[in-house]
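worker-3 :: picked Ribosome maturation protein SDO1/SBDS C-terminal domain-containing protein
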Amino acid sequence: MRLRIIVPKESSPSLMEKVNAWNAETVLKDESGHQLSLVCEIEPSILRDCDALSKCSTCNAFIGDVKQYRVHLKSEWHKHNLRRKTRQLPPLTADECLASVNRLFIILSSFKWDY
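worker-3 :: tokens ->
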């Protein structure tokens, strides 16, 4: 089973310990930005027995343990996808969300505001 896991960079050592303990094969590892995105192949039976991961159905991503999940729920990425979900739009990945926010910032910063 292919699994995509996204955690804050400071949590990456504990995630890598778990991935190694599961004997999972890392397919893709991206440490850009403020988070680690990891795609790995894992035995389905291990995932069923594991309560170390939480899945966000709004963002369609595995987040990490319960503490990381709570942090994720307060993130701009999650809030952005909640707004998209209410408009019946598909979720953005963390990188797509960051690019979208950056584009919006560039557009807004080009305006001259009179106060």
